[in-house]
Specification:
Layout lengths: L11 H8 L2 E2 L24 E2 L18 H15 L3 H14 L4 H13 L3 H13 L7 H11 L3 H14 L4 H13 L3 H14 L4 H14 L3 H14 L4 H20 L3 E12 L20 E17 L2 E14 L7 E15 L2 E14 L2 E18 L2 E14 L11 E13 L6 E13 L6 E15 L2 E17 L11 E18 L2 E14 L6 E12 L3
Parallel strand pairs: 1-2
Antiparallel strand pairs: 3-4, 3-16, 4-5, 5-6, 6-7, 7-8, 8-9, 9-10, 10-11, 11-12, 12-13, 13-14, 14-15, 15-16
Helix pairs in contact: 2-3, 2-4, 3-4, 4-5, 4-6, 5-6, 6-7, 6-8, 7-8, 8-9, 8-10, 9-10, 10-11
Length: 551
């Protein structure tokens, strides 16, 4: 289960944190190096855009080796740059490169245009090509610094920008970019000094400089200075894209606070799909006499609700319930009804340290009969070593009792202990978040067939991939080694120990129609490879439907 970012106390602190979520020139989320740390339901859906229209074109004589066609195309492209028509300019520079593949100026100007189009990786490639071709333009180092900055390669950005400052001192944008890099590296004193210097050198940079001064103040927990810097943007440049973004953020924040003030959460999902192996039966195993097939279409319904109460200034308690029902066509004996109840307490100790404790109960029915009752306990600790990464250490204990009669050796009643470590990361340059984890599980069962230990790894990726389309992708691989000779092994039984490796893949796409309605499509794949044929199987599940979130 992924951790949630630590909750913030409603009020000015949270308002400021929300307002600081502004996108930069490249259109990528938090390219300034700040990860949002508010609750998921307060995460703004509409971001402002900080458009840095910095076009400093120093026209120098083109190399004599350049072809006449290439020279004229570059001049036309420079005219497009001056008009901020960056896509048209890029086309001219690309045409110039085709006319003369050895023209270093064509490569340089491609990199310059790509920087302004928010494509730093491609820009850096063109700029390095220009260097290899012997480019003499004085802005090569500046443009490389720009590319590295937006690729979040802070040390590389500083190297190039420092080199440019030595050769061409006094440019305001150089100081601002250097200040951003030092901010991302956590050197707030250098960052503030360089940002102030940028403002003295070039007052037209005020919107973006004030924004990053607000970031520095926020990192120092100086909320008064944060508010002052944001207010300066609104007062000094009220019509700037950044000021409009801040006002939109304020409106979104007000709506989010209104929704957050409601302690109740409720959503309902309904859909259907196809399951290729409902039973989870191994390949080549004969079906039971009363079962004609393993695959089936199904309908699925999920109801989730919770109530959250602030019990201390930094602690919340949530009571929640989830109901799941899967009804299979022609396989009624496997119709699933699942009830999951939980209490979840979360405590924020510091801005970078929190803990949680969840107590749960899960009751499952199959075909209308009781199948399993399981109790769980899960304490965890989360730590944020940087603005873009978090680490969670968690322990889980589960005790499960099954309600069907089987030989004692097959009794799955068990106690399980799991210890896991998971890292949560913001993907540089993208609005995606990833997670990588490892866990070890000990399962102690009543029946000898189900005593085992497992090691597992997992990776996941979550976030928007195109406009409002969101993806949640997950993969895990678990290797399980059983302790005893398995009763189903070999031709006569008890011939060898069972060894399994399980691969699971889940990909879910979702897109909203309204704030309260979204559609989803989900694919699940499970491959359980086992040396005991009964447990060696594949399963694929396709599912699509809608989710309603009334509040």
């Amino acid at each position: 289960m992924a951790i949630r970012w630590p909750p913030a106390t409603p009020g000015s602190h949270l308002a400021v944190t929300s307002l600081l979520r502004v996108e930069s020139a490249s259109g990528t989320e938090a390219s300034h190096g700040v990860a949002y740390r508010g609750p998921d339901f307060l995460r703004p859906s509409v971001q402002g855009h900080l458009i840095l229209c910095v076009v400093v074109v120093i026209i120098v004589p083109l190399p004599a080796a350049a072809s006449t066609e290439s020279r004229y195309l570059i001049i036309e492209g420079i005219d497009k740059l001056a008009r901020h028509q960056y896509e048209d300019a890029l086309k001219k520079f690309e045409a110039a490169a085709q006319a003369d593949p050895k023209d270093a100026e064509a490569s340089f100007y491609q990199g310059l245009a790509l920087n302004r189009l928010g494509q730093p990786q491609e820009a850096q490639s063109r700029l390095q090509q220009a260097q290899e071709q012997g480019a003499t333009h004085p802005d090569v180092a500046f443009e490389l610094g720009w590319s590295f900055l937006y690729m979040e390669r802070w040390a590389d950005a500083l190297r190039e920008l420092d080199r440019y400052e030595l050769a061409s001192p006094g440019r305001g944008q150089t100081s601002e970019f250097r200040g951003r890099a030092y901010y991302a590296l956590g050197d707030y004193d250098k960052a503030e000094a360089l940002l102030q210097e940028a403002l003295r050198r070039d007052p037209s940079l005020a919107p973006s400089v004030h924004l990053y001064l607000a970031f520095v103040a926020r990192a120092r927990n100086d909320i008064n200075t944060v508010s002052r810097e944001l207010q300066a943007i609104l007062e000094e440049t009220p019509d700037s894209p950044l000021a409009r973004g801040i006002r939109q953020q304020a409106a979104d924040f007000a709506e989010a606070v209104s929704r957050a003030s409601q302690p109740f959460r409720l959503n309902l999902s309904t859909g259907g799909g196809y399951n290729s192996n409902v039973i989870g039966l191994g390949s080549g195993i004969l079906l039971p006499a009363d079962i004609s097939r393993k695959h089936a279409g199904f309908s699925s319904s999920i109801l989730e609700g919770s109530y959250t109460r602030q019990v201390t200034q930094e602690g919340t308690l949530t009571a929640g319930y989830r109901f799941l029902a899967n009804v299979y066509e022609g396989l009624g004996a496997f119709d699933l009804i699942d009830h999951f109840n939980y209490l979840d307490y979360r405590q924020q100790f510091r801005s970078d340290l929190s803990a949680a404790l969840q107590v749960s109960n899960q009751f499952t029915q199959l075909g209308g009969d009781s199948f399993r009752n399981q109790y769980g306990l899960r304490p965890s600790v989360a730590w944020w070593p940087t603005n873009w990464a978090a680490v969670e250490l968690a322990y889980s204990y589960f005790k499960g009792a099954y309600f069907f009669t089987v030989p004692s050796v097959l009794n799955p009643d068990s106690e399980a202990h799991t210890l896991g470590l998971t890292s949560f990361l913001r993907i540089p340059g993208l609005r995606l978040h990833g997670r990588v984890g490892y866990f070890h599980l000990w399962n102690d069962a009543e029946g000898n067939d189900f005593d085992f230990e497992s090691d597992g790894v997992l990776v996941g990726l979550t976030g928007p991939v195109w406009q409002s389309l969101n993806v949640d992708a997950f993969y895990s691989r678990v290797f399980s080694h059983f302790d005893n000779l398995n009763s189903l092994s070999g031709t006569t039984g008890f011939e060898f120990r069972r060894i399994d490796s399980t691969d699971r893949v889940t990909v879910q796409l979702s897109w909203p129609f309204f704030r309260w309605l979204l559609a989803y499509a989900r694919y699940d794949y499970t491959r359980n490879a086992s040396n005991v044929r009964f447990f060696d199987f594949n399963q694929q599940v396709w599912n699509m439907g809608i989710t309603v979130v009334p509040w």
